[in-house]
Each structure stands twice: as C-alpha cells, then as structure tokens.
Amino acid sequence: MRHILSILVENEPGVLARVAGLFSGRGYNIESLNVAPTLTEGLSMMTITTIGDEAIIEQIVKQLRKLVTTLKVVDLTDVKAVEREMMLLRVDAEGSKRAEVLRIVDIFRCKVVDVSPDELVLEVTGTQDKLTALVSLLQRYGIKEVARTGSVAMRRGMQE
Amino acid sequence: MELTGAQILLESLRREGVEVVFGFPGGAVIDIYDQLPNYPLRHVLVRHEQGAIHAADGYARATGKVGVCLVTSGPGATNTVTGIATAYMDSVPVVIITGQVPTPLIGNDAFQEVDIVGITRSCTKHNYLVKEVGDLARVIKEAFYLASTGRPGPVLIDLPKDVQTRLTEYKYPKTIKMRSYNPTYAPNPKQVAKVAEVVRRAKKPIIYAGGGVIASEASEELAWLARSFDIPVTATLMALGCFPADDPRWLGMLGMHGTYAANMAISNADLILAIGSRFDDRVTGKISEFAKNAKIVHIDIDPTSIQKNVPVHIPVVADCKSFLTALRQTLEPTLAEQPAAGHEAWNAKVAAWKEEKPLSYNQEGAVIKPQYVVETISRLTKGEAIITTEVGQNQMWAAQFYAFTRPRSFISSGGLGTMGFGFPAAIGAQMAYPDRLVIDVAGDGSIQMCIQELATAVCYKLPVKIVILNNGYLGMVRQWQELFYKKNYCATCLDVAPDFVKLAEAYGAAGFRVTDPAKVESVLAEAFALPCPVIVDVVVDREENVAPMVPAGKSITEMILV
Ligand SMILES: Cc1ncc(C[n+]2csc(CCOP(=O)(O)OP(=O)(O)O)c2C)c(N)n1
Ligand SMILES: [Mg+2]
C-alpha cells in the first residue's frame, strides 16, 4: 500500500543522504520525495511517498525516527490529510490541437505559463490521481516533457 | 582561553574521562599528535588501523566506557571501516576520530582524501564532518553522548587538518540536550504490569537474554527474576556471562550452535522473555517455525528491533535494567503470597533435555580435541578470565565450553563475525585491566588477520595470551563444506602456515606448541603464568565439528547433534 510520510528533520548537510540511504540500504523504494525548510529555523520537512506492507512501513517509520537528525515522523496515511502535487507539462499544441488542449486546461484548472507557436507549458496542482488522469488525457496530443514535484501533504484540521 | 582545534579535541577527551586512545598517525592528524604529549592520555600505537578500532572496541566491551580511536585520513580512515561495522552490529560505544584533508581541498580528490562520512553513514550511529572549529567542542560532547546512551554505537568525527590548527575560544558544554535525540529508558508502567501478569501466570517460561543485558548492566536484576520465579535462562552469544554458568537454571547459548536444552526449551516454552536480544536469524532459525506456541515479551531500548523479525505480544521499549527494576518492584510485594508459580514440571523437562544431550566431545587417543582445550582454560581460570575470540569454530567452542561467571568477560564479534577481531580486542581489554588474565581463543586462520598487533602487545607489555586452536583449516567454512557441499574443501585448507612459536619469538613474545593431550593443561598453566604476551599453538583434531548445528534455514529444533 502507498504511504505518505511526513518527516521533520534537522536542516544540516547529509540529512537527505541519511534518509535516502536508509531506504536504499534496506531495499525499500522511494516513490517521491520532497524537501523544504519549515517556519522553524534549522528544520526541514520531508514528504516521502513509499510503498510497502504494514510490517515494512512500521520498520521504515521506526528507522526514520531512530536517525539522530530526525525530530518527528508521521504516517499521513493513518490520519485525515490533504495531499497535493504540482506538475509542469510541455504539450504539443499546434494548429487545431490548441483549442482542444486549452479546453482540457480549463476543465482541470491548469494554468498556461508559457506559450509558443507550437506548444504550451502548463502548470497544474492536484492529487496524484488527478495529475495522472491529466497526463493520460494529454498524451494523445503529444507530451514533450513532464516535471513533477512529488507529493506534499498535511494533516487536516481537527474534526470528529 | 583560545585553543587550537587539536587542543580542543584533546582537552575535551580528557574532560570526557578518556584515559586511553588507540591510534596510528599520518599527515592529516599530525597536528593532534603534536599536542598529544601535553595531555594526560595514554596513547597506544597499533600496527594497523584495524587493530586500533578493534582495540577501542574491546576496551569498551570490557569496561562499558567509550573506546576511542584516532587515525589519519584516506587509508587510515578506510582501514577502520570493518571495525566500525563490527562495533555497530554489536552496539558498542566507540568514538572514532579521523583526520581529513583541509577544508578548501575537500571534494578535490586531494591526496589521501576519502569521504569517510559517506562511507560510514550506514555503519555508525551517527557521524560528523566538522568544518568550523567553533563547532568542535559541541560535536565532541554530542559524539560521546550519542555513543554511550540509548542503544550504544560507534560515532565518527571527521576533522579536517585546517580545523585542527585554527584557534577559537574554548568552552566545553557541561550538559547536552538534542531536540532530535531522546532515547527512552523508563518502561511504560502499563506494559510492565502486563509483563508481571504473564510472568505470574506462565507455566513454561524462559528468559532469552541478549547483549542489552550486558550493555545496561542488568545481570543482577536478571538473576533476581530467574531465581525468584525459577525460570530457566538462555542467552545469545552477545550476552554470555550475564548469568553464571554454574546456576542450575543456566541452559547455555541458544541458536545455530546453541545447546539442545536451550533450543528445545525456547521452542516449547509458553512464555519467552526476550530481554535485550533481537531475534537474530542465527538465533531463531527458520522464522515461521520459531516458538510457535509462546507468548513473546520483548524488551529493547531500540524500537526498530521490536516486531522486526517476529511478532511480539508485549513490546516494551526500555533500557533492560530500568525494565527489570520496575518489574521487580511490581512482582516483589506479592512474591510471598504467590510462591514461584508451579514450574516444577517444566523445569524437570528442561533438566531432562540438559541431561539427555549435553554438549559433549570425546578426548581419547593421541589427538587434542579443541573443546578440551577450552574446557581446560575454563578450569584453570575458574571462569574468571576475560575471553576474547576470533571467528569460526574457535568462537563457538569458546562460547560453548567456557563457563562464564560474570558479565563483560566474553568479548566476541557477534553480529558481523569479524575474523581478526579477537586479538586486538584482547589488547584493548588488557589496557583496561592490566592485572586480569586476558585470553584470545583463536583460530589459525583468523589470528593471521591482525597478527601484526603482537608488536603492540610486546611494546606496551600487555601480557595477552593467544591460544590458537590450530586445525589447519578455515574450520567453520570447512564444516559447512563437509556437511552441505559434499566435502568440497575448496580454498579452506591452510596448507602453508607460519610457525607460530617462531613468529611469537620474532616479535619478542613467548611461544609454545602443544600436540599431546596430556600436556595441554601444564603448558596452558605455564603460559598463563608468564608476564608477557604468549602464543600457545595447540594442534587440534583437524576435522572436528561444532555441534549441535542447526542447518541454515531449518527450525532450531532440527539440530545435527554429533
Ligand atoms: C574477515 C572475514 N572473512 C571471512 C569470514 C568467513 N569465515 C567465517 S569462519 C571462517 C574460518 C575461520 O578460520 P579459523 O580462524 O582458522 O577458525 P576455525 O573455524 O578453524 O576455528 C571464515 C573464513 C569471516 N567471518 N570474516
Ligand atoms: Mg582453523
């Protein structure tokens, strides 16, 4: 099963290597990884999506907590959380295709961030599913390049 | 006061209570060596950096204090890697200081540059590259704190040459708090209550002790539990000595080369108290067959060890000593009303297993049996020596036939199984305890892996005794070839070997050779009485096997017994 782990770490050299090494050294795979500083000076938040059964995920979480540079690990799969990913796409949009692509842009609430005579660069955010759906829709027009950020996620507000 | 990085390092080591540093110099640590004579630290100059790290490790295992090792950059640093991994696998507190090329050259493939922090990331508890001299004091404080607290382990500090010479104001932190590191020592009281309940109710309990009992100095507390509730005790290789071998409740080691009684008892128990052990594959054998009917209680300071290999019914994250103390407080008040809960039938069964198939060998004829050598050492030293081992059959025979009476007296590379470990580790232990008898039970193969440290032992007048169980083979591998590879003894016969007696003499140590079973005792006694390092080369039965043996992948009840 796919899990989203949110990991609060000391922002110091080598931290990424420690986390990544922990996955590779144990034969676990990272599906996506995202790191950025938090509001607290010196701390970064990593969001890692990974796949594994319960036992593997439990081991991953414990191993992550064991790293001396880790403050907190939350498996967001266990709680109500929102998840978003951003993607940039370079799509073929020559001639007659252009209108159709723009219609899809509308439906998916993408933004056109760059325009040239024969192609468009689109920006879109959403869940992984949404991005995947968009990619498969646009494939027929010709996708020349894709860049995705990997998921970021956050627990929802307190609720019953 | 302003000090250089090198001075800060040495002054901080002093403040950490370090007495001995095992090291080997080079260009990247010459500034540290330049200052060394000004500090009250004893330095042991080894002959190979692997010797330094194993000696620091042996010192730490024998004392419980942090061992310290100092080496130069590049090859000096890489030569310690095997020893770092050895300490990591067995949770031994050591601090390794490596020199590094000057900071402006880092990343330039400079002379004797390696990324030792990168190389050792997965075999240290933590490691540091210190780029600012202002960080050095804090880093050293943290390194000692990390190495010795929680689940102990090696911590490496990589110190560039220019940082060693730079000046800064020195202030050594008195206390330390790390927001990202807070090991749990005290057990959750609810879990302790649950354990107390199952201990009271169990009909067929067993204690399966591991290295955590030694690391947390919990032998006494463990003995209280075993004796108050009349529970049989088995232990892993790492925990030998945590419970006295002459106690009737002692079953011996369990696992691949464990005793019949220990393996049968753990397989038939209804309650397993796993205390500071980690269900290693050499212990459990085929995991799906392991202790299928038992309730498992697992106490470990490292949460990652719990539920890793076997499902656990009552997990307790805690230091073994804190846990056992809390358990005693819970159990003791009601002990009088509730006399040790009817384990008579169980204990009779366990006793029968012990009697049925004890560890045995047959010292008949003109050839010396290796087991007899170890048993003789045990008798001569009354189980009170510090025994280190190499790896292979020698290690297993030492574990099986030496009757340990106290913790920290068996020093062996368990997790990594590092040949070459025993002798330098013995040097480390002997540095810590100059007056105790320290004996390396060695194999003829392993001893050649760090034999150069004979010069160190002679130089520092460390009267370490090396007893080689010389079978002319890489015996343990040969045993596997015999049993599972149709006796295809490929690359395990050590046809050409040095004359170990002459070798000892060449280094200025003493050497003996024994080939006659009748002489074993007298020669060992003579060797042990000498005040210098000694090699005793005991020529033993070439194809003797370690038994019992659980073939890899089999259930631990499926022992080959001969
Ligand atoms: C550094 C290292 N290399 C290889 C091995 C694999 N190995 C395990 S036991 C063994 C044989 C050791 O021979 P010896 O020291 O003579 O001991 P014996 O088994 O004969 O008592 C070997 C090669 C190891 N454990 N460590
Ligand atoms: Mg041998």
From TrEMBL, chain A:
It catalyses: 2 pyruvate + H(+) = (2S)-2-acetolactate + CO2. Signal peptide: none annotated. Pathway: Amino-acid biosynthesis; L-isoleucine biosynthesis; L-isoleucine from 2-oxobutanoate: step 1/4; Amino-acid biosynthesis; L-valine biosynthesis; L-valine from pyruvate: step 1/4. InterPro entries: Acetalactate_synth_ssu, Acetolactate_synth/TF_NikR_C, Acetolactate_synth_ssu_C, ACT-like_dom_sf, ACT_dom, AHAS_ACT, AHAS_small-like_ACT. It holds the Pfam family ALS_ss_C. The keyword Cell membrane does not apply. One of its GO terms (cellular component) is cytosol. Keywords: Amino-acid biosynthesis, Branched-chain amino acid biosynthesis, Transferase. GO terms for biological process: isoleucine biosynthetic process; L-valine biosynthetic process. It is an enzyme of class 2 (transferase). The keyword Chaperone does not apply. Residues 4-78 form the ACT domain. One of its GO terms (molecular function) is acetolactate synthase activity. SUPFAM superfamilies: ACT-like (SSF55021). Gene3D superfamilies: 3.30.70.260, ACT-like. Chain A, domain 2. Its EC number is 2.2.1.6. Belongs to the acetolactate synthase small subunit family. Catalyzes the conversion of 2 pyruvate molecules into acetolactate in the first common step of the biosynthetic pathway of the branched-amino acids such as leucine, isoleucine, and valine. Dimer of large and small chains. This is Acetolactate synthase small subunit. It comes from Solidesulfovibrio aerotolerans. The lineage of its organism: Bacteria, Pseudomonadati, Thermodesulfobacteriota, Desulfovibrionia, Desulfovibrionales. The gene is ilvN.
From TrEMBL, chain B:
GO terms for cellular component: acetolactate synthase complex. InterPro entries: Acetolactate_synth_lsu, AHAS_TPP, DHS-like_NAD/FAD-binding_dom, THDP-binding, Thiamin_PyroP_enz_cen_dom, Thiamin_PyroP_enz_TPP-bd_dom, TPP-bd_CS, TPP_enz. The keyword Transferase applies. It is an enzyme of class 2 (transferase). It comes from the Bacteria. Pathway: Amino-acid biosynthesis; L-isoleucine biosynthesis; L-isoleucine from 2-oxobutanoate: step 1/4; Amino-acid biosynthesis; L-valine biosynthesis; L-valine from pyruvate: step 1/4. Residues 391-538 form the Thiamine pyrophosphate enzyme TPP-binding domain. One of its GO terms (molecular function) is thiamine pyrophosphate binding. It catalyses: 2 pyruvate + H(+) = (2S)-2-acetolactate + CO2. Residues 4-118 form the Thiamine pyrophosphate enzyme N-terminal TPP-binding domain. Binds 1 Mg(2+) ion per subunit. Binds 1 thiamine pyrophosphate per subunit. Its cofactor is Mg(2+); thiamine diphosphate. Keywords: Amino-acid biosynthesis, Branched-chain amino acid biosynthesis, FAD, Flavoprotein, Magnesium, Metal-binding, Thiamine pyrophosphate, Transferase. Gene3D superfamilies: 3.40.50.970, TPP-binding domain. This is Acetolactate synthase. Its EC number is 2.2.1.6. CDD domains: TPP_AHAS, TPP_PYR_POX_like. Belongs to the TPP enzyme family. It holds the Pfam family TPP_enzyme_C. Residues 192-327 form the Thiamine pyrophosphate enzyme central domain. NCBIfam families: acolac_lg. GO terms for biological process: isoleucine biosynthetic process; L-valine biosynthetic process.
